[in-house]
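Limitations

Structures in this collection are predictions, not experimental determinations, and the ligand pose is part of the prediction. Treat each record accordingly. The example that follows, with NAI as the small molecule, is included so readers can see exactly what is and is not provided: the inputs are given verbatim, and the output is the predicted complex.
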Amino acid sequence: MASYDVIIIGSGPGGYVCAIRCAQRGLKTAIVEGRETLGGTCLNVGCIPSKALLHASHMLHEAEHNFAAMGLKGKSPSVDWKQMLAYKDDTIGQNTKGVEFLMKKNKIDWLKGWGSIPAVGQVKVGEDVHEAKSIIIASGSEPSSLPGVEVDEKVVVTSTGALELGKVPKKMVVIGAGVIGLELGSVYSRLGAEVEVIEFLDAITPGMDAEVQRTFQRLLAKQGLSFTMGAAVQKVDATKTKAKVTYKLRKDDSEHVVDADIVLVATGRKPYTEGLGLDALGIAMTKRGQIAVDAHWQTNVPGIYAIGDVIEGPMLAHKAEDEGMAAADHIAGKHGHVNYDVIPGVIYTHPEVANVGATEQGLKEAGTKYKVGKFSFMGNGRAKANFAGDGFVKILADADTDRILGAHIIGPAAGDLIHEICVSMEFGASAEDLALTCHAHPTYSEAVREAALACGLGPIHS
Ligand code: NAI
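Predicted complex:
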């Protein structure tokens, strides 16, 4: 048995970042992880591997669609799927080994195995019980199930199986037009699969700015993805090699069946708390099965904290990281803070989609008077040169004070561009502050400045 200041259960971006901050604060720290490698869902079967496949498939798309126009002639590359998977696995390996290195560097013990909390102040891993003054649950999330759909990770897959397919399918049906469905649907569409997305609601990517939703769906359709909207999937009948997806259209209750080689179930994720022993400890949960925490990420049981996907809020790696650092600071007697109003969201398709802060719908509901500054990437010289003129930047600012309230970007490098707006919002900047900031030419970021200008006197290039 060993004794620690802090034991963190789970080594995803929430857990391992929290562990490093604990160590930086001088706390004796251990991290519990049952997988063979550190990094959790994000590094092993989520963000990182999907980005590798998105990158590779985007390169193919560029070669097929834009190379000739740039004077790059020759045969388009063909897909060596085994090698693409090897590249993805190598990317995972580099990242998980990197986290292992960081644990060693910060003198954080890795307790290998699945952890549970037999009593306050104790964490059990295998047969060993360790003591800790504070315990942080960072056990993440798992794909949620859909009634009538049995996942085998071969023909009917979640995002995990979709990163390991034996071959590129001819026909893929994606259930759910959320982040996972559209990212992985894009990958296989670019690699040559016929991809049909079946979505319950009438718009893709729930909760996103409505104008972005429409533009995004149009651009994805142009790339070859097809959408069946307002359709509730009833069941999936699968053999070892094929599947039939039955859905009902909400508008007329009519039933339809579609064949697929692969069905990707991407209808959301749920907190993963199995085997932790939370019931016996009397840890309070929310109605949605999340661990309930206070403003300092403390559960109702003293000394036990929770961060990331197991608590409420967007299931995003960077939100978990921020909570991990803040909870560590709090345990170390410092001030830990997360500004939940400024958490960016990014979808890594092409074009990328990014947002932060308020949506127009939200502002209308709250009765806030606001103005909109919008600028199309068609007016951005760099974007035009790079065949990346699709999309726009939209900034929402308070009608009276000009303070930036939110931003929505669809276009090239949107996931990077959003951060200058995040920083602006953190500093309480007005749209004019952003518009007065010199932006290098020619960069995509000029489109952000133009949208800020559009909140005032008007943009220059449209
Ligand atoms: P999601 O919640 O984003 O989307 C699920 C979609 O499935 C919704 O549009 C919903 O209306 C639809 N749906 C639900 N039941 C259905 C049914 N029976 N028939 C048809 N459609 C149905 O969930 P997703 O994409 O699985 O992602 C899970 C979580 O992982 C999200 O919280 C997301 O933020 C996170 N994630 C984030 C990424 C990023 O930041 N780039 C990448 C991947 C995941």
